[in-house]
Amino acid sequence: MWAHTHRSTFHYTCAERHGTQRGLGLTQSLRSLLQEKEGRQKEHSRMSLKDEVQDKYRLVAVIVFILGLGTLLPWNFFITAIPYFQSRLVTQQALDRATDLNYLNTSNISERAIHADEFQFNNWMTLLAQLPLLLCTLLNSFLYQCVPEKVRIAGSMVAILFLFTVTAVLVKVEMSPQTFFDVTMATIWFINAFCAILQGSLFGLLTLLPQTYSSLFLSGQGMAGTFAALAMLLSMSSGADHRTTALGYFVTPCVGTFISIMCYLMLPRLEFAKFYFSKSASNSAKNYELDTKAELLQQDGNPENGEQKQAVHKIKEAEVLTGEAAQKVSICAVLRKIWVMALTIVLTFGVTLSVFPAITAAVKSGTTDEKWGKFFNPVCCFLIFNVMDWAGRSLTSYTLWPGPDCKFLPLIVSCRFVFIPAFMLCNISDKSYLPIVFGNDAWFIIFMILFSFTNGYFVSLSMCLAPKKVLAHESETTGAIMTFFLALGLSVGAGLSFLFNALL
Question: Where would you find the membrane-spanning parts of this chain (predicted)?
Fold first, then answer.
């Protein structure tokens, strides 16, 4: 009896095991069939999409580039116009002290007074431009849930246009240096606050477009500084008086911002953008991908088969679990993966903003050529910086050295700290503690080329490598974390600029 029962149990167990294996094999076969059909379906969908929706005349690409240009125009136009602002902030006390130093003519007295920089305009401008960037980057993560996207983007652009118009009007308005300083600082604060909201909202919008359009947006941002420097050079070359030159200079970003508004309003009307920006189409595609799995299985077999139904149930359950896992992303876990890149971007921008433009804009030409001395700062400080920064960012399209697994990247970036004493020892007037070691213009130009190129390269490298360290469903959180550390690096550098300026 025991033997009979044992044999029966053995046969039942084998049968059950065989049935389970057969079920698993069938499930695997169904999965393979499903993947093959989905692959054919997606390929057909991609081919159809390519035929039906195209960026005609590359209009969307041009608009995205212009929008990227518009987001960084305010910051670049303000820092490039530092000589104008400093000329408006000369106090009577500064003129009196300059006169007591027995300067021979009025131009030299004014030059001496401007160099005094009693308001520390460069430092305060840098700090009050970066703090709202840090705060509004955090604020924007809450605003996008309660404020519509069009209101955030279009509203920020209109506010920036209004504030730039006020800045242009103030060129012709006489006021005391203290009042002008207060109004200018308030304008810088609010313009950069709106720029932070605008930039974060546009980045979110562009995630709906193909990856190449995000690259175009970044290229537009990289060209904003070059555009501002060229506008300053053209204004100075016009031969007009100081106030008229400044007025024409500040009218330029007003026109550029107005064009950006028109481009943004035109963007949703283009068929290519309309297709990608359609949220209902996006949601339908996701639902279709989840629901058609069962249909594909039932079309290829008997719908009454219990094992097929079980396989369909398992696949649906796996999809639900995957979706839940994608929503539950640990910030601490992501930060442990990308801390090297986060530290790298903080160190990079910390070094850059600690001396640019607070200290670099104070460097003067060591030659006696007055014409070259007039163009030295716009060309050697701002134009070279923006061109080489853009070149450094572009290099990451060809190489990503060192790779994402390199732990020594922050150490390599720390070598850029050598630029801080290098610029502080250049030809800066009215130093109290440091001598002028690098008085020749060539030294400053060499430092600026290396300084700006490494800034662009390491910033772009960090932003490119960070997503490679995380899973696909952690990419959005990674972008938010890196944006926060980018703003943190800018703010740290702006704060350090006060310290280094005091050590001159």
Answer: 59-85, 124-144, 151-171, 183-209, 216-234, 246-267, 338-363, 375-396, 408-430, 442-466, 478-500
Tell me the pLDDT band of 407, cut-offs 50, 70 and 90.
confident
What's the CATH code, domain 328-504? 1.20.1250
Q: What is the DSSP string of 451-472?
A: HHHHHHHHHHHHHHHGGGGS-G
Alpha carbon distances (Å) from 282 to 31, 55, 275: 25, 19, 9
Neighbouring CB atoms inside 10 A of 504's CB total: 15
Write a three-state SS string for 333-355.
Answer: HHHHHHHHHHHHHHHHHHHHHHH
Pick from 263, 489, 451: nearest CA to 360: 451
Cα–Cα–Cα angle for 116, 117, 118, rounded to 5 degrees: 95
**Residue 289's closest CA among 476, 39, 29?**
39
Q: Fold match between 54-276 and 328-504?
A: yes
Q: Which residues of 418-439 are buried (b: 16+ CB within 10 A; e: fewer)?
A: ebbebbbbbbbeeeeeeeeebe
Gap between the Cα atoms of 412 and 347, Å rounded: 10
d(CA 350, CA 491): 8
Closest CA to 287 of 329, 319, 325, 315: 319
Phi, psi values for residue 438, rounded to 5°: -105, 75
Q: How far is residue 462's CA from residue 348's CA, in Å, rounded to a whole number? A: 10
Q: Model's pTM, two decimal places?
A: 0.72
Of the chain, the end-to-end C-alpha distance in Å amounts to: 102
pLDDT in the model for residue 24: 45
Give me the residue spans of the domains in the chain: 54-276, 328-504
Tell me the one-letter amino acid at 100: D
Residues 6 or more apart in contact with residue 319 via CB below 8 angstroms: 290, 293
pLDDT tens digits, residue range 414-441?
Answer: 999 999 999 999 999 878 889 999 999 9
Helix axes 475-502, 441-465, angle to 10 degrees: 160
